[in-house]
Structure formats: C-alpha cells, structure tokens
C-alpha cells in the first residue's frame, strides 16, 4: 500500500465502531479455524463482541473516544487497529494492580509487512504506561504466526504457554437456595427451642 509514510495512530472514535466490529469478526473467524474447539459454539465470539460494544458505548458518552482501542490510518482511511484490554473499576478508572492484555491486533492485508502492527503495539504500550498500568501481556494462538512474530520481535520472549483439553469440564451444580434457606431456618428454630427450654 502506498502512502504509509503518512501513517498516523489515534484513539478510536464512534465513527470507527462498524469497521472495527467487522475486523474483529474477521479475526474471530480466523481464530475459529485455528482453535475450533474454543470458538465452535460462538460463545467466545459473542462475549468479545459484547465487550467491544460496551467499551464503545460507555466511554463515548463522555470522552467521545475510546482510548483502549487505537486505530492506524492513512489520510482518512483506516488500515488497522489494536485493542488493549485494560481492567477498570466501577468508576471507569484503570485498575493499576492488573496487567493489560492485547486482545486484538489487525492490519488490512494490503498494508501488512510495513510495520503497522509494530507501530500499533508501540502506541498501545505508551497508552498503557501513561495511565499507570505496569505490565502488558499477549496470547497468540498456535498457528497465528503473524502475531507470534510481532510479539517475539517487539518483546523479549519469556514464556510459551501450552494447553490441552483432556475432557469436557464438569457441569456446574445448581444450588437449591430454597432448600438451604429451609435448613438454616430449621436449625435456627431448633436452637431457639433448646434455649427456651433451658431458661
């Protein structure tokens, strides 16, 4: 792609949401090919889309921009984005005890291999450091060679994480709250009866 000398990065705005959502869905589709067991049900994609909508809807009402998502653009054309997932408290302030995580990095095919991903990652690091978060981490699915190369080139590789599914997780047991309350009531009634007899 010509014109990358004019590459700029800024915080995402409301007008960028539709494009970012499209790219995010494209990324999830690629992840599904790599890890079908994780993404087959669609639950992981649904959760991330809900987080994306909430992230845009909540801050944009006051700040008119979404600082945790940065977009790369040339002139008026978006060519990529990075989603830096920063844990926040109920007041919307960053949780300084938590590590930020890179949720998504996406660059359009025509602009890849031009350092766009590297510049987005650098900008995300600067933003995270500016709000006081001490650490940042990222997870790249096995087979996602582009993301692995990006993180390995930018950061000193300190850990490789391996995972295997041995069996289906056990189903969560539903608690019978009425039964529990009834037992507590009976125990309290019995204790009260014993005390009244003793007196």
From TrEMBL:
The keyword Glycosyltransferase does not apply. CDD domains: NAT_SF. Residues 7-184 form the N-acetyltransferase domain. The chain crosses the membrane at residues 177-196. Pfam families: Acetyltransf_1. One of its GO terms (molecular function) is acyltransferase activity, transferring groups other than amino-acyl groups. The keyword Transmembrane applies. Gene3D superfamilies: 3.40.630.30. It comes from the Bacteria. Keywords: Membrane, Transferase, Transmembrane, Transmembrane helix. InterPro entries: Acyl_CoA_acyltransferase, GNAT_dom. This is GNAT family N-acetyltransferase. The lineage of its organism: Bacteria, Pseudomonadati, Pseudomonadota, Alphaproteobacteria, Rhodobacterales.
